[in-house]
Automatic annotation (TrEMBL):
This protein's name: D-3-phosphoglycerate dehydrogenase
Top EC class, one word: oxidoreductase
Family under the similarity heading: Belongs to the D-isomer specific 2-hydroxyacid dehydrogenase family.
Pathway(s) served: Amino-acid biosynthesis; L-serine biosynthesis; L-serine from 3-phospho-D-glycerate: step 1/3
Catalytic activity: (R)-2-hydroxyglutarate + NAD(+) = 2-oxoglutarate + NADH + H(+); (2R)-3-phosphoglycerate + NAD(+) = 3-phosphooxypyruvate + NADH + H(+)
Keyword terms: Amino-acid biosynthesis, NAD, Oxidoreductase, Serine biosynthesis
EC identifiers of the protein: 1.1.1.399, 1.1.1.95
Residue span(s) of domain ACT: 340-409
Record GO terms (molecular function): (S)-2-hydroxyglutarate dehydrogenase activity; NAD binding; phosphoglycerate dehydrogenase activity
Organism placement in taxonomy: Bacteria, Bacillati, Actinomycetota, Actinomycetes, Kineosporiales
BP GO terms, sorted: L-serine biosynthetic process
């Protein structure tokens, strides 16, 4: 665990990678940060080179923020994942080094849902096959294998923010919705909760995955699951690349058991636009391949840019951890005319009393105080009338439970 020097610095340098929306740069620049941007992802060695002096880091899905990166980035205060998933960040190591992590759990939900619906309709009507034939100069006017989505059975695996909204919109199109989730979820509309994954696979005409990025989901959907799907059914994955066995999917598409598929995420993805891409699924009939663009609409990216950048700003300036995925949650409420001490610590009895003892012995008057805990971590923000003396910072850092101390304002 680390406990950097108590410092009143309010702003510094921010690094935004992977073509994060320009609104994020604007928001942080207006708040006083010097913002650097890069269009692609950085690997571990490149991150280690770029992070000295960087207090705020913004990434999307490709950049991996490992324990080694976090151990060697003492200036880093917060990481923003400008996407839904955070499995590309070592959350435990980030918390251990006092680095807050934020994401955008809701901002691109609608965009992913609309892409899924567009692909369901296109695959069910076999529009990809018709399109290829026309480009090849073949006029194939036939209804064979083409269906309406109305009356079809949609199986949703993972009934979170995206899966549940997809459920509602698909029902409005006349589809019957069945879903499976490992945790109890409220069924919306006429959707029916199934007791097992296999039950969904044996019912659905269309199966779509919307599971999270936890490591236990690696290889979640493979040969056995594809074999259990109904002959002539359709498969979509817009969640995580590593949850699906692409070789098994390719075999079932070639055999005709799976009539069509749409894949937006892959086990290994290029670092940026223009890089080469390969997959066992290239060239297969009625298969739609997209370059991880489920949330890549201008509307979603604009909203994500503003949302996550605001979280980074508020944490750096006020110590606010609302919607942090790895630290205890405290809001932005501050006491007017005060300076804030933010103390992240191991969650054991007596820490709050120890902090207040240090402040009392130094004659520091507390104007306001908030405390929150989350698992092994505790987080307390204390508003004081004037900046704390260096001696106060030294004594707070020396508390055995201290992870990180910051002075804000």
């Amino acid at each position: 665990m680390s406990a950097p020097d108590l410092t009143p610095a309010r702003t510094g340098r921010a690094l935004l990678l992977e073509n994060i929306h320009a609104d994020a740069r604007t928001l942080l620049s207006e708040a006083g940060w010097e913002v650097e941007t890069a269009s692609g992802a950085l690997d571990e060695s490149e991150l280690l080179e770029r992070l000295p002096g960087v207090s705020l880091l913004g990434i999307r899905s490709q950049t991996q923020v490992t324990a080694k990166v976090l151990e060697n980035a003492p200036d880093l205060r917060a990481v923003g994942a400008f996407c839904i998933g955070t499995n590309q960040i070592d959350l435990f190591a980030a918390a251990a080094h006092g680095v807050a992590v934020f994401n955008a759990p809701y901002s691109n939900t609608r965009s992913v849902v609309e892409l899924a619906l567009a692909e369901i309709i296109a695959l069910t009507r076999r529009l990809t096959v018709k399109d290829q034939a026309m480009h090849a100069g073949v006029w194939d006017k036939s209804a064979a294998g083409s269906h309406e989505v109305r009356g079809r059975r949609l199986g949703i695996i993972g009934y979170g923010n995206i899966g549940s909204q997809l459920s509602v919109v698909a029902e409005a199109l006349g589809m019957s919705v069945f879903f499976y989730d490992r945790t109890d979820k409220l069924a919306l509309g006429n959707a029916r909760r199934c007791g097992s994954l296999h039950e969904v696979l044996e019912i659905a005409d269309v199966v779509t995955l919307h599971v999270d990025g936890r490591q236990s989901n690696s290889g979640f959907f493979g040969e056995e699951e594809f074999a259990r799907m109904r002959p002539g059914s359709i498969f979509l994955n817009l969640s995580r690349g590593f949850v699906v066995d692409h070789e098994a999917l390719a075999r079932h598409v070639r055999s005709g058991h799976i009539a069509g598929a749409a894949i937006d995420v892959f086990p290994t993805e290029p670092k940026g636009s223009g890089h080469g891409f390969d997959s066992q699924l290239r060239g297969l009939p009625n298969v739609i391949l997209t370059p991880h663009v489920g949330g890549s609409t201008e509307e979603a990216q604009e909203d994500i840019g503003r949302f996550v950048a605001a979280k980074l700003r508020d944490y750096a300036l006020y110590g606010a951890t609302t919607l942090s995925v790895n630290l205890p949650t405290l809001g932005t409420e501050t006491t007017p005319g005060t300076v804030r001490l933010a103390h992240l610590h191991r969650n054991v009895p007596g820490v709050l009393a120890a902090i207040n003892s240090v402040l009392a012995e130094a004659g520091v008057n507390i104007e306001g105080q908030q405390l929150a805990t989350r698992g092994d971590l505790g987080y307390v923000v204390t508003d004081i009338a004037a900046p704390a003396a260096d001696e106060v910072g030294r004594r707070l850092r020396e508390l055995p439970e201290t992870v990180r101390v910051r002075q804000l304002g």
